[in-house]
Amino acid sequence: MNTPSEIWVAFARTFSMLVLVLAVLILVFYLIKKFSTLNHFKGGKDHIRIMSVHHFSAKEKLVLVDVMGDILLLGVTPQNITKLSSVDHPIDPSPHEPKAPFRFSDFLSRKLGNREAKINEDINT
């Protein structure tokens, strides 16, 4: 029969081999991720940039995103993501004026103001 000390030695060997196999597996996954030639499929950091986020509640927000030069206003909820608007050409401040910081509230009021004007125009005609 096995003595208690032999059982503990067998347990220690088994446990150490399990730790060794898991460590090698983690190392292999790390090296695959680090040296993978498929990095260009993950998407570049310079192609998509979040310009501003406005939270309405814990799970609902508006996000202003620059995707390869196109600026999009997205509505984000837990169920879906909806494109609300796109900016055709951003307005650059003139060179002699100091560059004002981007204000999401100004952008949103311009966009909502344009929609309200169109709705009022449709009602009046």
Features:
4 strands, 125 residues, four-stranded antiparallel beta sheet, 42% helix, alpha+beta, 2 domains
Give your account of this protein's structure:
The structure is a single chain. The longest helix is centred in the N-terminal third of the chain and has 31 residues, at 4-34. It is built from two helices and four strands; from the N terminus they run H-E-E-E-E-H. The mean pLDDT is 79. It has 125 residues and is α+β, with helices and mostly antiparallel strands. It has two domains: 4-41; 48-91 and 100-124, no CATH class. Strand 1 (48-55) and strand 2 (61-67) form a beta hairpin. The protein is elongated. 2% of the residues are buried. It has a four-stranded antiparallel sheet, with no helix packed on it.
What is the 3D shape?
elongated
What is the end-to-end distance?
99 Å
**Structure annotation, total helices:** 2
What is the strand tally? 4
Helix fraction bin = 40-55%
Overall residue-averaged pLDDT value: 79
Largest sheet: 4 strands, antiparallel
* Strand order within the widest beta sheet: 1-2-3-4
The Cα radius of gyration reads 28 Å
Structural class: alpha+beta
Low-confidence stretches: none
Summarize this, please?
The protein is an alpha+beta fold. It has helices at residues 4-34, 104-124; strands at residues 48-55, 61-67, 70-76, 81-87.
Q: How would the blueprint of this fold be written?
A:
Layout lengths: L3 H31 L13 E8 L5 E7 L2 E7 L4 E7 L16 H21 L1
Antiparallel strand pairs: 1-2, 2-3, 3-4
